[in-house]
């Protein structure tokens, strides 16, 4: 049982920042976490105004992440934050994360974990050296029916996995973005997003979901990235063939120019005995298709689901749980892990069920290998880390 609320500091996520508000709602959902401080913007006035809107004490609202982390580290253990949540564009992930680890704070970061694979490896190494935890918000792994799917695969219900197909189509970047669209602007800027656009933004979610549910690791890729809106500097569409470490093959496509699509991530996993499919826009349903039996439909909140699915379910069947609840599951499990470590207890497997530093390293490796593969005439690229 948790002895106190886990205190969170936030870097980024100020006024009019969509994802910052989502993080705060998710962190607050189970009542286990409280926002105690923040450096919400590189603009001092915006950070201070954001802190006021969130009813934080003036002396816990900072104008830079450096000031926040160093000041918080000097506060009494009963007052300072336990972890920092970093909700900035990609190029601003590494420095606050590394500084937080160096000063004794756990870290939660939006994906992708860093700007480069080298930075991701450095963060993972620092976390291992310090014994501190890194959590990565691959939100889709937080859904109860995704966890049900993972458990069924791990239990051998589908037999040996042969094929994984995952798709992530969006349409919001089908046209050149208006100049005042900050969410689109930084994602299309190599100085802020990195070497990839679409594959870094949504392709990494698809790759993580494929590995999470299947329990396999990608070992080879063959990629084709595209820029379909004139004037863009980074990919807005891509297709990737996959090979996995058990011999299975797969297909991943991600696009942000799929006109008319909203946020339609889907996954299909096929084994020797049957297959399953899950659609994020109908998240409470998991469809299982058997080779020699009628199709089954699993629904969130029912007693027949696995213990891990139930552990991440809040409401009875027929009461939909969605994106915020899945996001909150990652925060809940991370907070419970921190609390256990604070009490010098061993976190349970359920607590530790959140994406971490290793997932972050593999995500950055996915980006760099996909970009290299797309630029090459070589058919298959080894998935190098």
From TrEMBL:
Residues 6-135 form the Gfo/Idh/MocA-like oxidoreductase N-terminal domain. Coiled coil: none annotated. One of its GO terms (molecular function) is nucleotide binding. InterPro entries: Gfo/Idh/MocA-like_OxRdtase_N (IPR000683), Gfo/Idh/MocA_oxidoreduct (IPR051317), GFO_IDH_MocA-like_dom (IPR055170), NAD(P)-bd_dom_sf (IPR036291). It comes from the Bacteria. Residues 146-277 form the GFO/IDH/MocA-like oxidoreductase domain. Gene3D superfamilies: Dihydrodipicolinate Reductase, domain 2, NAD(P)-binding Rossmann-like Domain. It holds the Pfam family GFO_IDH_MocA. This is Gfo/Idh/MocA family oxidoreductase.
């Amino acid at each position: 049982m948790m002895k106190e609320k886990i205190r969170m500091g936030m870097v980024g996520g100020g006024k009019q920042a969509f994802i910052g508000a989502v993080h705060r709602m998710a962190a607050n959902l189970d009542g286990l976490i409280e926002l105690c401080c923040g450096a919400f913007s590189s603009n001092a006035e915006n950070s201070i105004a954001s802190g006021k809107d969130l009813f934080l004490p003036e002396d816990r609202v900072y104008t830079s992440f450096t000031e926040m982390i160093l000041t918080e580290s000097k506060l009494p253990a009963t007052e300072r934050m336990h972890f920092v949540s970093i909700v900035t564009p990609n190029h601003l992930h590494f420095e606050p994360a590394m500084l937080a680890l160096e000063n004794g704070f756990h870290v939660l970061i939006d994906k992708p974990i860093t700007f480069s694979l080298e930075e991701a490896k450095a963060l993972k190494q620092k976390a291992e050296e310090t014994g501190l935890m890194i959590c990565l918000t691959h939100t889709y792994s937080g859904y109860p029916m995704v966890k049900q799917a993972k458990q069924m695969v791990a239990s051998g219900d589908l037999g040996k996995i042969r094929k994984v197909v995952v798709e992530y189509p969006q349409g919001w970047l089908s046209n050149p973005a208006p100049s005042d669209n900050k969410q689109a602007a930084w994602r299309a800027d190599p100085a802020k997003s990195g070497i990839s656009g679409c594959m870094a933004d949504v392709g990494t979610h698809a790759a993580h979901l494929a590995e999470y549910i299947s329990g396999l690791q990608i070992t080879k890729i063959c990629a084709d990235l595209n820029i379909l809106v004139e004037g863009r500097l980074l990919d807005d569409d891509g297709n990737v063939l996959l090979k996995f470490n058990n011999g299975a093959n797969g297909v991943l496509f991600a696009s942000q120019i799929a006109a008319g699509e909203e946020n339609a991530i889907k996954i299909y996993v096929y084994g020797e005995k049957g297959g399953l499919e899950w659609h994020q826009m109908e998240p409470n349903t998991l469809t299982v298709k058997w080779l020699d039996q009628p199709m089954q439909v699993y629904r969130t909140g029912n007693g027949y689901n696995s213990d891990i699915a139930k552990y991440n379910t809040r409401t009875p069947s027929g009461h939909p749980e969605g994106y915020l609840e899945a996001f909150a599951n990652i925060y809940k499990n991370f907070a419970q892990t921190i609390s256990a470590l604070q009490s010098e207890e061993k976190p349970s497997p359920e607590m530790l069920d959140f994406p971490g530093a290793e997932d972050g390293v593999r995500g950055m490796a996915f980006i760099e290998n996909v970009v290299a593969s797309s630029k090459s005439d070589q058919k298959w690229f080894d998935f190098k880390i």
